[in-house]
Structure prediction request, 288 residues.
Amino acid sequence: MWNYEKRLQFPVNIKEPNAKLAQVIISQYGGPDGEMGASMRYLSQRYATPYREVAGLLTDIGTEELAHLEMVAAIVHQLTRNLSMEEIEKSGFAPYYTDHTVGIWPQAAGGIPFNACEFQSKGDIITDLHEDLAAEQKARSTYDNILRLIKEPDVCEPIKFLREREIVHFQRFGEALRLTQDKLDSKNFYAFNPGFDMCKDCDD
Amino acid sequence: MGSREQLLNDIGIVSFVLVDLGLYLDTHPFDRNAMEYFNHYNRIKHQMVKEFSMKYYPLTMDMAESNKEWRWGAAPLPWEGACG
Prediction:
């Protein structure tokens, strides 16, 4: 169950359209390390953890990622608003425009469509949390790459906010991994899947 | 910034404090100081959202009680931005 708040998590007020920037920023909507993959990853993984506080964290971070997905969409939407045909042709936006006009569609900067293979839900919370730590770093690197390409402050500010959140989520996932490892049965020395393997198996 | 924008901006700031504290409390469930902070700002946020929804437009559907026109549908969309 979810509730919607009619506001963005961080304000997005872009003055000048810029289709070139929109084309790279859309990668954080539907690209390999984007917010769609992030939200689906955490919201899908949470069923396989036997620990309520870890499932709670995956729910809350997954929910925040949905708010980030909306922010990225708002940035792309405002960057492609009121574009002239000349701007569309000159900026290299014509291939996207042909298929989607200026609608929002999940794809990577290089045009590859969003694919669920960009995240994993392994059914083993230890494995999944390691993926989550890597995912936050990959998203942070992507925002770093984007920030090197843009100078406009009204675009930089929300991107910088999103970048900072990757760092906080990385920290929280590290704590969740520690909580998980602390809860493992002391006999489960090799950290078998705590949500699947029975403790009895550890005695063998 | 008009008073509507100012209040919405303030709600964004207080809500961010709550989101960040919420994640922190998920992994530090016995931190009393953090809980006090959370309780304090949570009350403020509820007040602000109520005030905003009565003065301008409902931010959440539970604030959308209407008479003549369905207020929820008439509210501006968050991605419109300042130049929308």
In short: Chain A touches chain B at residues 3-15, 53, 56-57, 60-61, 64, 70, 73-74, 77-78, 81, 168-169, 172, 175-176, 179 (CB under 8 Å). Helices of chain A lie at 19-25, 27-30, 35-45, 52-79, 85-90, 94-100, 125-149, 153-183. Chain A has one domain: 19-203. DSSP finds eight helices and no strands in chain A.
